[in-house]
Task: structure prediction
Amino acid sequence: MTAHNVLVIGSGGREHVLAWALSRSRHVKQVFVAPGNAGTAWPAQARITGLNPCAGSRNVPVDTGDFEALIAFARDNDVALTVVGPEAPLAAGVVDAFQAAGFSVFGPTKAAAQLEASKAFSKDFMRDHQIATAAYGVFTDFEDACEFAMSFDGPVVVKADGLAAGKGVLICDSVEEAHTALQTVMVDRAFGAAGDRVVIEERMSGREISVLAFADGQSAVPLVVARDHKRALDGDKGLNTGGMGAFAPTTDVPQSLIDDILRTVIQPVIDGMAARGTPYVGVLYAGLMLTEAGPKVLEFNCRLGDPEAQVILPLLESDLFEVLQACLDGRLAETELRWQSRTCATVVLASPGYPEQYPKGLPISGLDQLDSMPDVIAFHAGTAAHDNQIVTAGGRVLAITAVGDDLDSALDLAYQGVAQVHFDGMHYRRDIGRTHESSQS
Result:
C-alpha cells in the first residue's frame, strides 16, 4: 500500500483537527499545513496511541490566499491530496485553481461555494429549489431596504451578503433596530464590500440545530450531530462568538429528523448544484431552525464548523483519507461511515476581551501536562510559536477536547484538561454541555 503526502490549507482549530485526523490514516505518510499554527507541527510516531497523531506534520509558511505558491508547494512535495479548511479561499476559487493545475483537492468550487459566500445567492437558490427558509428580500439601495424592513410585522434579521468572518448577521427586535443595522452595514460599511448587498429576512423562532454532511456531487452522507455553544458567557449570556465549546453526538435529534433534513434540504442542494453544472463536492453545513412549520434553513456553510469539527472528527472510526477520496471519486454512496459509540466534548479557551478586542502574544503554559492524559488533546486555534514559547495569536486560542464513554465523562475529562492550561486573562465557559443552546458557526 502506498502512503501519501497531504496538504491542509488553513491555520485554525478546524485545520488542526483535519491534519490530526489525516495523520491517523494508514494512507498518509506526511501532513503539511499552510500556514498552520503552533499546534499543527509534530514528529511522526510509530503507532496510534490514545488521541495522539501518527504521521508527522509540518507547517508551510504560505498564506491561504497565495494559490500559486500553494500549488507550487504541492507540486514540489508530491502532495496527493489537498484539503481546504476555511471559507475565504474556497470563495476565492482555490479548488478551481488546484483542479486546473491537475491536483486532487477536497472542497467545493468557487461556484458551489457561493452557498456560503453570497447570502443572496443562497436564498435565491433555496427559493428556486423549494428548500424551506425564511421570507426575505435582497437590496443594494439603503432606502429600499429600510422600506422593506418596515413592511415586516415583527422582528427581522439583517445579513451582509458577503463573507464577514461570521459577524455580518444582525438580529433586530424592532424597526428602529433594523434601520440602525442597515445603516451599519450599508452606509457605515462596517463589513466593507460584504455589505454591498444585504438580505433582510423574517426572524424565525424555534430550536437551532446544525446538520453536516459529506457530499460527492451526487449524494450526501451525514456526520454525527454536534451542539455548539455560541454565547461568550455561562448561561448562554454575553456576546455571540465563533463558538465557545461543543459536544457530539446530541441525544435529542432523532434519526427521523435527520432523514427528513437529508430529504428536504441536503439532497435538494446536491441535486440543484448538479443541475446548474456546478456539482457540490465537500462538506455541506446546514444551519436550521426547527419551527412549528418544520425545519427551515438559516444559512449554509461550505466547510466543517469550528468547534464542531473538534468533536465530530475524533469520533470518526472510518479512515478520513478514504472518505475524502470517495467524495472526489463519486463513490460516497458505496462508503459506510463508521462512528465510535462514545461522546466527545470540547471547551474553548479564549483570550481576554474576546469576542471584542484582545491582546496577542500571551505565553501559554501547561500544554505538556496533557501528554499524560490519553483521552484529552488540545486543538490549537489561535496560537503561534515565539522564541521557543507557544503564545496566543487569536481570540479563540485552544479547544481542549476529550473523548469519554458518555457526555459526563467527556466533559469531566475536558475540564480536567482545561485546569492544566494557563495564560493571562484566559476565559472559558464552565457550562458546556449543560445548556440546550445550539447554533451555527
Q: What stands out?
A: The radius of gyration is 21 Å. DSSP finds twelve helices and 22 strands in the chain.
